[in-house]
Request: fold
Amino acid sequence: MMKVRLIFCLVLISTLLVSGVAFADELAVIDTSMEGDQVISADSKLLEIIKGNVTVEAGITFQVEGIVTGSLTLKEGAELILNGIVEGDLTLGAGATATINGIVGGNIYNNSGNEIKINGIVKGEIH
Reply:
């Protein structure tokens, strides 16, 4: 009986650990070019080009490895990891965060109350 309980506990713990890792790494991958303004409503990673403006919904993480040809707006509590290019402006809503490792071609409007981590290039001004 003790062996059965021990095996059950080990199986349960293993299942929880594997499930936890899978949930932590889930990002929807955008690997096709898109035209027109887009709304990002799930944690996502952009590998291609969005030809237009992008709005990232509240609480969503958006990782940009590609290019956004327009402006990008982060709603409340959204997170941006920019390794690619945003050709227009970047606007951060309340509580939003941004790490800039790539290029912002326009201005940054920081209404978040948080410091922006800039390791890349901002061609415009930071407000």
Q: What stands out?
A: The first strand starts at residue 28 and ends at 30. Residues 16-24 have pLDDT under 50 and may be disordered. Helices lie at 2-24.
